[in-house]
Amino acid sequence: MIKNFIDNLFPLRRSELTAIKRSKIISLWICYIGVLIYFGWKAYKLSQNERTLSYKEDDSSPIPAPRATFFSSYNFTIDCQTVYYDDSTGGCNKYVTNTYPYFGGYSLNFSAPALEFDNPTDNASALLGIQLAVYITDPTFPGGDAAVEAFFADKDTESDLASASKTPRIKGVSGYESTVALANSYYIANNQTYALFYSRRILSPLHQNAKNVLSGNGDHKPITMISSILISYPNLVVGSYAAVLMRPNSYIVVTETENSDLTVTDLISAVGGIYTAAMTIYMFLFGADVIGPWGLIQNLPCVRRKVRSTLHKSLSPNIPFSGPILSDDLSVDQKLKAIEKRHLALEFFLQDYVVSVENVVNDDTHKGDIEAPTEKDIETSED
Ligand SMILES: *[C@@H]1O[C@H](CO)[C@@H](O)[C@H](O)[C@H]1NC(C)=O
Ligand SMILES: *[C@@H]1O[C@H](CO)[C@@H](O)[C@H](O)[C@H]1NC(C)=O
Ligand SMILES: *[C@@H]1O[C@H](CO)[C@@H](O)[C@H](O)[C@H]1NC(C)=O
Ligand SMILES: *[C@@H]1O[C@H](CO)[C@@H](O)[C@H](O)[C@H]1NC(C)=O
């Protein structure tokens, strides 16, 4: 059994020189072990599940105004103003909620999905910024610092995170949540004006499961967020505690899509490619080996019998599969007939299972090139 397997693994010709036989075996071992090591390495890389981010830039749509949440330990209001590139201004207090009690203090929200920043190179009257001025209205406010905090997010962040966290096993949602929360949280000090410059980003983390692991193109749940910086100036809004002017610093939205570095398909094709390359070099050096015309299907227990009997039937009238005919008690003519039949049957067999011999059959210029194997050759193949 094992010997058969090894023989199939290293099919060798009886007529081969011993030195070449040895180097063939060594080369094959090197090929197989090399491919095995390569497979192991690739499988390890696959198990690491490494990912690459691909970038896509899009400047075709305007940038929506961010959402903002303010918090203070003293009651306050916010006065909203829009500023345009054509020097006009507008009111936007309808986008600001009333304060509501929050963790022993007060909080309010600003949310204006209708306000959008067009690229000023395309729109001369585009929105330049949205100014939110904070006024402390609390009668108990003694002056000084009112512990105002502000948190900015993209208008879609909240629903994106909610929908992403509904996807089971999506990795890194908590990471994105804290990134979204911490990256755009600021402490607003007294008597300052701030400029909040922000850009919109879309992250598309990969969610892989058994279904899509083959292709590597897992489900993507986009999470829209902003990255921002806050720059402070002396207070320009007289009478206010502080003011924040929100404006985009880029009209390009970058989408970062997570992709698998390596998929099962990649693994198979990479290992297959390396194996083919190794075998091509091997065949270049040592030539092709015997063709195996019987595969798994022909070797299935139920099929195998039929294959055998069909083959036996097709050859048996001419090849009797029994003792040598020459020693039989036949006339010379009968013997010649029998030999011819066997010869023909062998040709048919060769045509069916080894190589097309049509060209060889009619070509008698090479007659005598092929020598019959000797007893010695047969013996050496046994060890
Ligand atoms: C907080 O301030 C607002 C605006 O001045 C006022 O309408 C509201 O009643 C105040 N709330 C509390 C609980 O004092
Ligand atoms: C304000 O925003 C927060 C955080 O997004 C949310 O939990 C809260 O319900 C909002 N409140 C109002 C009055 O819109
Ligand atoms: C230019 O921007 C303003 C402010 O956002 C908007 O109202 C207006 O429709 C825009 N004009 C064009 C041509 O898009
Ligand atoms: C606020 O800042 C301005 C400019 O720096 C300064 O003139 C003013 O006195 C400050 N007001 C308070 C109440 O600190």
UniProtKB/TrEMBL annotation:
<keyword id="KW-1133">Transmembrane helix</keyword>
<protein>
    <submittedName>
        <fullName>5913_t:CDS:1</fullName>
    </submittedName>
</protein>
<keyword id="KW-0812">Transmembrane</keyword>
<keyword id="KW-0472">Membrane</keyword>
<feature type="transmembrane region" description="Helical">
    <location>
        <begin position="23"/>
        <end position="41"/>
    </location>
</feature>
